[in-house]
Amino acid sequence: MTGQPEATHHPRFADWVAGARPRTLPAALSPVLAGSGVASFARAFDLGMALLALLVAVALQIGVNYANDYSDGIRGTDADRVGPMRLVGSGAASPAAVKRAAFGCFAVAAVAGLVLCLWSGQYWLVLVGAASVLAAWYYTGGRNPYGYRGLGEVFVFIFFGLVAVCGTALVMQGRFSLLALAVACAIGFLACAILVANNLRDIRGDLESGKRTLATRFGDRGTRWFYLGLLVATAMAVAAAAWLSTPWALLGLVFVPLLLPSTRIVLRGGVGPELIAVLKATGMAELACAAGLFVGFLLG
Fold it and tell me: Which domains does the chain carry?
């Protein structure tokens, strides 16, 4: 181990909650809400399936957060950072305990996902679920984590955008649709924007520790423009979803005014605590976009 303090006491419940990083949970709720909206537009919404899909998404999100906490902590990349408390990096919990928590969350996601596959009859989704768990662990885990190679945004777009939204709609509808793909792109782009805001905040520490995120490759200025580009891409995807379904889907654009203050902070060079506010706002904007799409599909 390199750089993390030794755990000096048993972590409190509040520590585990903080380590789960609640501010990232909109990235789990949003794709299920948006995918459920697609299914409702096709008159195929099923509350039971939606709740199971939500359990899968939330368990994977928390599992990823604990896995990142463990992997970054034992590598020492959390030794000097701005942001939420990390269990291993702060010494609040032992690496072994955090690792067990991560795999416990993955197990919950796997069981719920298996039930959902059996219920829907989409048995091949078991392979997708297995890939999701492996991708969650190897994001920062293993000897060659792809999150340290600038591929974190690719993981987020695929699994918290395409897979989560299309998978939610698929188990209810029983088929794939271009509408689900357009909605998945919108949610995936905003999920990526959350990660970009996080990595922009940590860019200095990541450079010093050798963690090569996309932000360290783009540089400070390039990452700020990348954040803006993701928001523009989201708006275009929402417009495409409205074209494929109903003009009411344009309610998904509610995220735009919500992120105007954050966009100004990012483009004028905000750092540290300012970017924590951007991270929180981007997560809530993703949830607002998903809710807008859901309501739009219901009205349509």
Answer: 20-299 (1.10.600)
Fill in the amino acid letter for 219: G
Averaged over successive runs of 10 residues, the pLDDT of the chain (300 residues) comes to: 50 84 87 96 94 94 90 69 69 86 94 94 91 87 79 89 95 94 97 91 79 86 95 98 97 96 93 88 95 95
The CA angle 68-105-294, to the nearest 5 degrees, is 95
Closest CA to 187 of 36, 47, 51, 71: 36
